[in-house]
């Protein structure tokens, strides 16, 4: 079965890619398999300046999920371009570069540098960071702020732009429409949900940062719902993510409306998960009676001539 | 470093809530070194979600087995303790960098300083040191007499000094109170952070510290497990840059 | 240890109670134990008129959670007062009556009837329903609408009012403050998170209703975070819930700021969970070094003279 | 109805993906009746979250055991199939109302109509009917020859008619195609909804239908498992009002 998918800036031979922050810059997992097997690679968030990130503990386990508060640790955009992205140029897969910041200028500068480096296929704007200029409101929770940021980044970048939506909002569709109107070429969803854990033996918050982002299978039903809602209201493609573990999860995300599916937390449990899913996908699709992978995308709401199975 | 479905040879309770786990995994046994660790999927059906890092306490390359010693402290270790003989255990490893011993000269004297479940990796280290003709003394600290394990095993390779916090066995107090560095070229320490901090700051010589930190991936990709360092990078990843660090590099 | 807690309208001998909708009107679980063991009982949502609820399937299992779309099935307020609440009058525990509706008038009428029946200790306003008059926006996602509804219900009821907050919002603190300002006597949080599941073998949504509410351990980190944030900003008590399974979960909710803790989904796994937790709580608190249960509430943010443990 | 930690006596594969599970639970065996079901915590450590409803297929009150037959169709049943002998299995039950048989006169003839994993509860029913001197015929439908189970066991109590969808065993087609109600006073049917719908609408006599629905609590508290009825209430809870209903009451 043909599993290729054409997304803005990214010609993928499989719709499966790793999610940002769970895969470093790829070098660690290249010890396990050839990265060229992937549909694309999403790298860890890059910021204008080097960041040391939060204190430890940075993660906590929850039921079928985990909280993380890494704090955007990264060596800064210049170093990333020179070393990390440079290393990836020896691979033949699209590179999606996740961008973060606390002020619009950070995002703009980082995006401009990455785009003009020629070493990225597309940008993924991580708008879940607090906007220091707007009193800490997340870029990702106000449609107007997200619109402005998307516009500003589009203006300095000539490569496609994916905006990564935060699920911590009342109306995800409004967010999606705002960034689409501002020129986003695609959406990534969902980022983590804000959560917290308390150690009852000490009464203290487990994460040094207090709050963290919930990821993993626990959040999958929320991700599926949000993608389902958004996919029907926008015409740009969606990279879906949130708790993917099995090939049926990949298909569920596609049926909800995702054109590609990213795997985050599951890499920690099984470092071979990406190649395993990539191999299993065409087999499982055939088993389910599909002849064409494209038919799966949006299947849950797209009207379909005949039932898939009886 | 690879994924292995090892088979559980046995699990035995060796002290209060401390289990000895022996698994059969010949490739892993061949590849592993003292001080490295295993990232273990403790349960079945992917539960709990995250793997648990556990040090390698012993290796039998002839038998193709590895031994770990772990304490039940929470969900993951409780689940592990419930796993049965012959069941398969999914292991990612060996991970991290072991204790450097090549620079130590034959005939010199080193000390091992371990606290609680920080002791296990020192056991295989002791074996290897002795095999290389290096003399070693072990300083082992526990909370109480019922927590003591592997004291006899260590005695086969080195002279053993035990401290318990409540004095119910060996010296009363912390292990750092009884350590002597006279004639010693270096030390290898593993244990809780307060112990390592004391070791680093109180001892007049440099040595190696094996750190613990909460881990996600175990391979250097998620940045969960960092510790601050004096190096240019300013931080290191315990899983892939460590868990063993020269004592002068880490900030404690 | 003294585990009594005084909440508006409810003198509870233990802070543990069942959550609405997971416990019917109590009669089923009274086959397993004496309901008088409970701190209180929360009954299934009551509406002005009888409702048949949604089609089946009404539930789906997710990783460490479940989705439900029962659809407010209930025999209507008059029947509930005459039969269900009447039956509960033979017990010696506070009765918290959960109220739902699709128009403000529904809520007001139902609340008035329940309050004047004399058979309820307090009302719990379930504001997660879509407001038909405001084009389907949930009462629980707009602070102004929630304010108005709370005011309207307070005006017709002389028993204390708890407002049950929905987690599907950008700013839960704003919601909490709005209903507090409108006169709410307490908060219940959190209700379920909107989620969805797709059956990949058919491409269809699993729940007949499409979307459903996610409950269970999966959502606990989100509940803890929201309660932690809200507890520091309001001065009315919080009944916490969302994924409680163990006695440490109960304590975690209290440390986050909850004064009482409700158990929902866990009843399905273990029908004895409530009495088990009630028995375990004082034992575990003592083990953790507490002499007074009150000290636990808000422990994670309340400044405490000395560390709990070393 | 109570919570029991039963012990697994054995699990055997009796047809393609169909397991026979025998548990020891004397109190449960004493209390249970044909047509009731068990709500089983299939895994350990509370995973998966929800219990799974499985019918009681057989009861040995002397031995104090119950037998279930279940097909692996998803996560919960897969987990259950992995549970080992002697492990303890947490069961809530017996739940629901069984098949009413007291109204049937000695010597009369009834039929049992079962489809796939709807067949199990009919087995103990057949035993009980025969013991009461009631004659019964069983019409059992399966997808294919390799799915057939308990045909021999039923033959000890009644005459058995088998249909398979692909004709690989017995009659080709649906079991509802071969049912004969001549001289029959009532029927007891359990199987997939399409089968029950045909049974209700095609057969000239009234009988009893045992329904399946997704369940949360299993005891009537959550309202997950309703089915529409012709009664004044307009709906019934499959778990506590059923699973067995008079065919005329339920709307299919
Ligand atoms: C390199 C390394 C080697 C180790 N070797 C051993 C050993 O040989 N024997 C032994 O008994 N223990 C060892 N530990 C500690 C062991 O990993 C923890 O005790 C274990 O992860 C606790 O898991 P849990 O689910 O039982 O506890 P929980 O408290 O329920 O775990 C919750 C989360 O916190 C993490 N966590 C909790 N405590 C620790 C800790 N001390 N270090 C790292 N993560 C932690 C868990 O992995 C899990 O992700 C080692 C840790 C590291 C980092
Ligand atoms: C009263 C009753 C008696 C039953 N008796 C038997 C029996 O004797 N043998 C047997 O093989 N099966 C029986 N079933 C069906 C059995 O409950 C399901 O096959 C089983 O729950 C599937 O679980 P799963 O996790 O493997 O499947 P999944 O599809 O992964 O389950 C997902 C969710 O859907 C529910 N579900 C899926 N299919 C069904 C179904 N057909 N009925 C109810 N819930 C379902 C599950 O319980 C679970 O909550 C009975 C069902 C009921 C209601
Ligand atoms: C440890 C960790 C670090 C993450 N870092 C980032 C990041 O830097 N940028 C980003 O956009 N998302 C980040 N995420 C979110 C993931 O990319 C993904 O959106 C989320 O985890 C949901 O997918 P999952 O459930 O498969 O992990 C991170 C997630 C984890 C677990
Ligand atoms: C089957 C089911 C039915 C519910 N019905 C109601 C309801 O009628 N009214 C309400 O306010 N909450 C209802 N809830 C939400 C619960 O009261 C609770 O807020 C939520 O499930 C989180 O707690 P839990 O994780 O312990 O279940 C329902 C939950 C479930 C699972
Ligand atoms: S555990 Fe992921 S970087 Fe160390
Ligand atoms: S399963 Fe809860 S009412 Fe039937």
From TrEMBL, chains A, C:
Protein name stated in the entry: Dihydroorotate dehydrogenase
Classification via PROSITE patterns: DHODEHASE_1, DHODEHASE_2
Cofactor list: FMN
Gene Ontology terms: biological process: 'de novo' pyrimidine nucleobase biosynthetic process; 'de novo' UMP biosynthetic process
Organism domain of life: Bacteria
Binding of substrate, residues: 44, 68-72, 126, 191-192
Organism: Salisediminibacterium beveridgei
Subcellular localization: Cytoplasm
Keywords of this entry: Cytoplasm, Flavoprotein, FMN, NAD, Oxidoreductase, Pyrimidine biosynthesis
From TrEMBL, chains B, D:
SUPFAM superfamilies documented for this protein: Ferredoxin reductase-like, C-terminal NADP-linked domain, Riboflavin synthase domain-like
Residues bound to [2Fe-2S] cluster: 217, 222, 225, 239
Pathway assigned in UniProt: Pyrimidine metabolism; UMP biosynthesis via de novo pathway; orotate from (S)-dihydroorotate (NAD(+) route): step 1/1
Cofactor binding note of this UniProt entry: Binds 1 [2Fe-2S] cluster per subunit. Binds 1 FAD per subunit.
Binding site for FAD: 52-55, 76-77
GO-annotated molecular function: 2 iron, 2 sulfur cluster binding; electron transfer activity; flavin adenine dinucleotide binding; metal ion binding; oxidoreductase activity
A GO biological process held by the record: 'de novo' UMP biosynthetic process
InterPro entries tied to this protein: Cyt_c3_hydrogenase_gsu, Dihydroorotate_DH_ele_sf, Dihydroorotate_DH_Fe-S-bd, Dihydroorotate_DHASE_ETsu, FAD-bd_FR_type, FNR_nucleotide-bd, OxRdtase_FAD/NAD-bd, PyrK_electron_transfer
Residues annotated as domain FAD-binding FR-type: 1-101
Keywords: 2Fe-2S, Electron transport, FAD, Flavoprotein, Iron, Iron-sulfur, Metal-binding, Oxidoreductase, Pyrimidine biosynthesis, Transport
Matching CDD domains: DHOD_e_trans
Listed cofactors: [2Fe-2S] cluster; FAD
Quaternary state and interactors: Heterotetramer of 2 PyrK and 2 PyrD type B subunits.
Family: Belongs to the PyrK family.
Chain's role: Responsible for channeling the electrons from the oxidation of dihydroorotate from the FMN redox center in the PyrD type B subunit to the ultimate electron acceptor NAD(+).
Annotated protein name in UniProt: Dihydroorotate dehydrogenase B (NAD(+)), electron transfer subunit
């Amino acid at each position: 079965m043909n599993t290729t998918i054409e997304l803005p800036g990214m010609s993928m031979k499989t719709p499966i890619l790793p999610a940002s922050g769970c895969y470093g810059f790829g070098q660690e997992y290249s010890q396990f398999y050839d990265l060229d097997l992937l549909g694309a690679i999403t790298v860890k968030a890059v910021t204008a300046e080097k960041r040391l990130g939060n204190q430890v503990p940075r993660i906590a386990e929850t039921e079928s999920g985990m909280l993380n508060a890494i704090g955007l640790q990264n060596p800064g955009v210049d170093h990333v371009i020179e070393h990390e992205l440079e290393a990836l140029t020896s691979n033949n897969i699209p590179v999606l570069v996740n961008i973060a910041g606390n002020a619009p200028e950070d995002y703009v500068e980082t995006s401009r540098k990455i785009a003009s480096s020629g070493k990225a296929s597309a940008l993924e704007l991580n708008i879940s960071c607090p906007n220091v200029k707007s009193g800490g409101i997340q870029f990702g929770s106000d449609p107007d702020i997200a619109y402005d940021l998307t516009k500003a980044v589009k203006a300095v970048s000539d490569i496609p732009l994916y905006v990564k939506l935060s699920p911590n909002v009342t109306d995800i569709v409004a967010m999606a429409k705002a960034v689409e109107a501002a020129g986003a070429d695609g959406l990534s969803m969902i980022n983590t949900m804000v959560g917290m854990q308390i150690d009852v033996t000490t009464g203290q918050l487990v994460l040094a940062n207090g709050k963290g982002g919930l990821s993993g299978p626990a959040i999958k039903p929320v991700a599926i719902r949000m993608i389902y809602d958004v996919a029907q209201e926008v015409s740009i493609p969606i990279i879906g993510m949130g708790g993917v573990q099995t090939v049926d999860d990949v298909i569920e995300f596609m049926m909800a409306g995702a054109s590609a599916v990213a795997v985050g937390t599951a890499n920690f449990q099984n470092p071979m998960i990406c190649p395993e899913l990539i191999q299993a996908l065409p087999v499982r699709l055939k088993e389910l009676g599909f002849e064409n992978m494209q038919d799966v995308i949006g299947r849950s709401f797209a009207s379909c001539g005949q039932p898939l199975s009886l | 470093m690879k994924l292995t479905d090892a088979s559980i040879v046995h699990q035995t309770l060796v002290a209060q809530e401390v289990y000895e786990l022996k698994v059969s995994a010949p490739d892993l046994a061949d590849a592993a070194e003292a001080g490295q660790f295993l990232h273990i999927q403790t349960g079945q059906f992917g539960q709990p979600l995250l793997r648990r890092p556990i040090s390698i306490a012993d290796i039998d390359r002839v038998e193709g087995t590895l031994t770990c010693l772990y304490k039940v402290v929470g969900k993951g270790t409780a689940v592990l303790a419930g796993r049965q003989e012959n069941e398969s255990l999914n292991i990612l490893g060996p991970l991290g960098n072991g204790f450097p011993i090549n620079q130590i000269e034959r005939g010199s004297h080193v000390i091992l300083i371990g606290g609680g479940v920080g002791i296990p990796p020192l056991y295989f280290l002791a074996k290897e040191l002795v095999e290389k003709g290096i003399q070693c003394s072990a300083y082992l600290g526990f909370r109480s007499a019922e927590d003591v394990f592997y004291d006899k095993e260590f005695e086969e390779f080195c002279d053993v000094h035990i401290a318990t916090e409540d004095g119910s066995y060996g010296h009363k107090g912390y292990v750092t109170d009884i350590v002597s560095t006279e004639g010693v070229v270096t030390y290898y320490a593993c244990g809780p952070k307060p112990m390592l901090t004391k070791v680093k700051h109180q001892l007049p010589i440099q040595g190696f510290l094996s750190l613990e930190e909460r881990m996600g991936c175990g391979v250097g990709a998620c940045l969960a497990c960092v510790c601050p360092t004096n190096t240019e990078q300013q931080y290191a990843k315990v899983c892939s840059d460590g868990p063993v660090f020269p004592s002068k590099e880490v900030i404690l």
